[in-house]
Design brief:
The structure is a homodimer of 356-residue chains.
Chain A lengths: L3 E7 L28 H9 L8 E6 H10 L8 E4 L5 H15 L4 E6 L2 E3 L2 H16 L3 E6 L10 E9 L2 E8 L4 H10 L2 E11 H11 L1 H13 L4 H8 L8 H4 L7 E6 L3 E3 L3 H7 L8 E2 L3 E4 L5 E4 L5 E5 L4 E5 L3 E6 L6 H10 L7
Parallel strand pairs in A: 1-2, 1-4, 2-3, 6-10, 12-14, 13-15, 14-16
Antiparallel strand pairs in A: 4-9, 5-11, 6-9, 7-8, 7-9, 8-10, 16-17
Helix pairs in contact in A: 3-6, 3-7, 6-7, 7-8
Chain lengths: 356, 356
């Protein structure tokens, strides 16, 4: 379709991937999946056969805009939208939407987080076309990932009757459940994981924003008027005053005409080092070593250093994540990798900006 | 006493302290006890009030001789005896003895490993004087460390009646025991740990060598004749042919007139990273951090890096030894630190000389 666009959300800090991820090099700029490219570039390449560079926007932070431009030299630099401050996903998507609408009043946009992994690209593109098709007529569409288990780390979406082949009506969004609840969701087969990937016409989402988040809409309207003249100046003035809200809470929960395309194309949210380990190639002892590692009676470990001449030695240890950089070394229980953010918080408290 | 000498044995490789210890920087050149000096310098300073620099010899390997000279600028360089190959302790002590005898036919020598820690220096020096006194009359004297527990990592010495205050007769030497045997030793109160520290007149030990290890004696006799002329040339030719044997097995086990001075001055054999942890200062969570460390729900860990600007972060881990260098990182179970040598063996097998 000639009027399809993509908004890639690349604004996260990814503190759970410290010390590899830093303020100036957040996780979307890392190659966490061994693809040979940063995750944000993977996200773009996943879309390319369907959407050309000139119709792909990346919303990111000012501090990382240059690095993203470098990682994606073929992307027009004017398609990189640099937020002066992070305001969660609703303002980010809204800013993208005003650009899409400016280019094409009938434009339909895919919204994609920059830190997801998709294994089956063919399947992804098939569902992408289906979702665009559904969104074209005005629905707010999302990808719902068919659960692989009673995961408690994701929000869920409850769906109802199929409205057309592969497309279902959304009943409601639910927050991250406890394990017992997650099990009932999975057993019922009516719940999918909320992937955070959305599809809608730009005019349609702006209309929802106007009704549900009028403060945001006024800010976006001001920015829209400045596109092509003093946009960045306006953004710098307006953005800090925008409400910080997610598209899920701010819009989707109470929107009309919501549809879900259930998908099963090998989707992974790279949320922490544990996910990186899960997806990495393992040796016979279930060690996943991205750096040269010598091991003695050790198993279930993940190793990585950014010094290509360095080796790592493991002696009688198990289930550890070891990530080494020039100025910081992390050693973490592999089943507790979400706690890495606690170290980042401590470093923030102690004003150790050089390590963040 | 004016005729006391010391032979410091600094020839070990210390593979269990890899990756901090390397072929060119073995453990005796490391500051493993946080004293601010390498262990070999600690060993010298422990003796200095009793024995001046000019009467202290250090036997080491050629590859480390320069580093030792650098660490001890006041030690006469001719007192550093550089072995072309390691031949265990009997040849090392024998070579020292011929030097002592050359300087003073009645010289009495203390033999000290370079990698031991002594906490109570006053007590050490008191026992040193006592041992020299006992050795002066011709006995082969050793320090026997009063056991702090049924340790299975040391050899033991059985003693009999006291022959003079603080000096006992040696009954026999026994090898590293199993735990049950070690317990009976400790309960009997007649056994001490074999400290590896010995005291004897130079002529007396050379006489024992002549009778018990005639091949070694002939080699030493040849070297003795070359002192002051072409000694190093002779050593290079003779040394590789000398038998590789410890002083314990080769001489002490079957020698006559053996005495033991039981000691209790806070003696520690720095045998592996576990010992370093045991001796290091701990925080409330029993972590011993020689480098800046941020920890979240972690305990019993030892951390060290040779990069003063680097931090280490621990997340939900316990009882680990973490040693970081520029080209290698070790992560090891703190109770299995003796297995670090297995990594060194693997690196040797794989011809990774740059890491050894």
């Amino acid at each position: 379709m000639a009027n399809t666009y993509a908004i890639i959300m690349a604004g996260g800090a990814g503190t759970r991937f410290w010390p590899a991820s830093r303020a100036r090099r957040p996780k979307q700029l890392l190659d966490l999946t061994d693809s040979g490219r940063p995750m944000v570039a993977d996200t773009v390449h996943r879309l390319l056969p369907e959407i050309p560079y000139e119709r792909i926007f990346i919303v990111t932070q000012q501090v990382t805009a240059d690095a993203i431009a470098e990682a994606l030299p073929e992307l027009p630099t004017e398609n990189i939208l640099a937020e002066p401050v992070g305001r969660n996903t609703a303002p980010c998507i809204g800013w993208g939407a005003v650009h899409v609408q400016k280019r094409d009043p009938e434009g339909v946009m895919a919204v994609m987080p920059a830190d997801h992994l998709v294994q089956n690209l063919q399947g992804f593109r098939r569902k992408l076309r289906l979702a665009f098709q559904a969104a074209k007529s005005g629905a707010l569409v999302m990808f719902g990932v068919r659960p692989r288990g009673p995961e408690t780390g994701f929000g869920y979406v409850e769906t109802a009757a199929q409205v057309s082949p592969g497309v279902r009506e959304v009943v409601r969004f639910v927050e991250k459940p406890d394990l017992a609840t997650a099990k009932t969701y999975v057993a019922s087969r009516n719940y999918d994981w909320n992937s955070g990937m959305f599809f809608f016409r730009a005019d349609r989402i702006l209309d929802e924003i106007q009704h549900q988040m009028p403060d945001l809409w006024r800010g976006l309207d001001e920015i829209a008027g400045a596109i092509g003249t003093n946009e960045m100046e306006t953004v710098k003035r307006v953005y800090p005053k925008l409400p910080s809200q997610s598209i899920d809470y701010g819009i989707m929960e109470h929107a009309r005409e919501r549809l879900c395309v259930p998908v099963n194309f090998g989707w992974f949210d790279m949320g922490s080092w544990g996910a990186t380990y899960d997806l990495a190639k393992k040796d016979d002892a279930q060690n996943a070593c991205r750096t040269e590692t010598f091991s003695h009676e050790s198993k279930g470990c993940y190793t990585q250093t950014d010094n290509p001449k360095k080796i790592i030695a493991l002696v009688n240890v198990k289930d550890l994540v070891i990530v080494d950089t020039g100025d910081a070394l992390l050693v973490c229980d592999r089943n507790k990798t979400q706690n890495v953010k606690e170290i980042v918080k401590t470093l923030e408290t102690k004003n150790r900006a050089e390590l963040l």
